[in-house]
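Case study.
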Amino acid sequence: MSKLNIVLFGPPGAGKGTQSEFLIKQYDLVHLSTGDLLRAEIKAETELGLAARELMDQGELVADHIVIGMIRNKMEAFNDAAGFIFDGFPRTEAQAKALDAMLNAKSEPIVAMLSLEVPDEELVKRLLERGKSSGRVDDQDEVTARKRISVYAKETAPLKEYYKAQGKYKAIDGVGSIADITGRLTKALG
Ligand code: ADP
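After joint prediction, the assembly is written out as follows.
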């Protein structure tokens, strides 16, 4: 059976993590979040974590080869999965190309890129709210929140065109209740 490999796309604070929790249960998928993987490296105080920490705290992107390597390792470890949800990855065109190369080599391409669309002001509000309980350094102040949103607009949002060219881009309204958005995602997956 073909695998349900999905890119869950959208700016910081769009709700990718929250919606991933639902999708992995609903479709029996493995959740691959580069943000979560990087935070685990920081917590374990690995060399990789030490190198990534400062960039993440400042809202900058971590180097492509680092995140691509982490994704490759995890995909190998979960070779039998029914599919993957890629969350927070790819974030650059180089990452998208590397992901396509890895998946095409196994004839298990991305089937859809679901893009959660949320206005910037709502994102800032959500990130600062999350910062009160998450303890994440990058959620603590408005300057860093806006920095991440601008990095997204410049480096990451152009990937919509990349997936549009493959006929895989689907825009999802990311404003509403968690259940509303879950419903929209399910419908988009048909
Ligand atoms: P958010 O959804 O709030 O953007 P993430 O947990 O996805 O948060 O990412 C947190 C930080 O981790 C990013 O700001 C960036 O520094 C780093 N990061 C995560 N994924 C990637 C990636 N694919 N490429 C480069 N850096 C990444």
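Observations recorded in class. Residues 12-13, 16, 34-35, 38, 55-56, 59-62, 67, 88-89, 91, 95, 138, 148 surround adenosine-5'-diphosphate (CB under 6 Å). The chain has a mean pLDDT of 97. We will return to this complex in the next lecture.
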